[in-house]
Amino acid sequence: MKQQRAWVGRVTIGVSLDGFIARPNGDISWLLDPPAGRAHAHISSTRRAESWDTFFPTIDHIVMGCGTYETVAAFDEWPYDGKGVIVLSTTLSEKDDRIRVARSVEDAAAMLTDLHARIVYIDGGKTIQAFLRKDFIDEITTSWAPILLGAGSRLFDSLPRDVYLTLLGSHATDDGMVHSTYRVEHHPIGR
Fold first, then answer.
1. Residue 75 DSSP one-character state
2. With left for phi above 0 and alpha for psi between -120 and 50, is residue 25 left, alpha or beta?
3. Which of 77, 152, 169, 191 is the S-S candidate for 47 at Cβ 3.0 to 4.6 Å?
4. Which domains does the chain have, with CATH numbers?
5. How far is it, in rounded angstroms, from Cα 155 to Cα 127?
6. CA 96, CA 84: separation in Å to the nearest integer?
C-alpha cells in the first residue's frame, strides 16, 4: 500500500505545439518573448486554466532538475525568494544557499515531507517525467505556444503506463497560448 503524501505536486509549463519545452540548446526565448502583432482567436471554458499569476503565490516549494536550475540561476534576479527550492542532481554541490540538493526523486519527496511542504511546483522536463512515474504529480497545467520547434527537449517521454487526466479548465490568451489544467487520476475508475 502506498503511503499518503501530505503535499500536492503541481506542474505549470509552456510547451510548443509539437511537444517541446526548450530548443536543443536549452533556449526558451520563444516562450518568454513571442512575436507581437498576431491576432489569435479566443476560446474559453466555464472554468479557466490556472495562470502563473494565480499559481505561483500558492506554492511553497519547488523541485527542479539541474538543467532548469542552471537556467534560472543565470537570471538577473532569483525568481524564487521565499520559496523552498530543491534541485535534483547527482553531481551538484550545495554551494548555493538558496537551494537544497536531492540525489533522487525519493530523497526529494522525503525532504518535502520533512519540510512540511503543502503545494510543490515540479519544474523541468526530466524532473516532471520522474515525478510522474512515481505518482507524485496531482495537477498539470500546460500552456501550448503557437510555434513548432521541430526539435528540442520533450515535455513527456515514455512512461511505464497510461496516465489518465481530467480536464479542469481551459482558455486562450491574446498571445495565442492555450492554457489547460488537468487533474492526474492516480486510480482511474475501472482500471
1. S
2. alpha
3. 169
4. 8-20+43-185 (3.40.430.10)
5. 10
6. 13
Residue found by looking up cell 482567436 in the block: 41
- The residue with cell 532569483 is 78
Q: Which of 182, 180, 147 shows the shortest CA–CA distance to 44? A: 180
Question: Rounded CA gap, 93 and 74, in Å?
Answer: 17
Residues 88-124 have pLDDT tens digits of 999 988 788 899 999 999 999 999 999 999 999 999 8
Q: Would you say how long the chain is, in residues?
A: 191
- What is the grid cell recorded at 61? 516549494
Burial, 94: exposed, middle or buried (Cβ in 10 Å; 0-12, 13-18, 19+)?
exposed
User: pLDDT tens digits, residue range 35-51?
Assistant: 676 666 666 666 777 77
Q: At what angle do helices 105-114 and 125-133 cross, to 10 degrees?
A: 80
Distance CA 25, CA 74 (A): 15
Identify the DSSP state of 102: E
Please compute the mean of the pLDDT values over residues 17-39 and round it to a whole number. 79
Find where cell 487533474 sits: 183
Band of residue 1 on the pLDDT scale cut at 50, 70, 90:
very low
Neighbouring-strand partners of residue 106: none
- List the grid coordinates of 62: 519547488
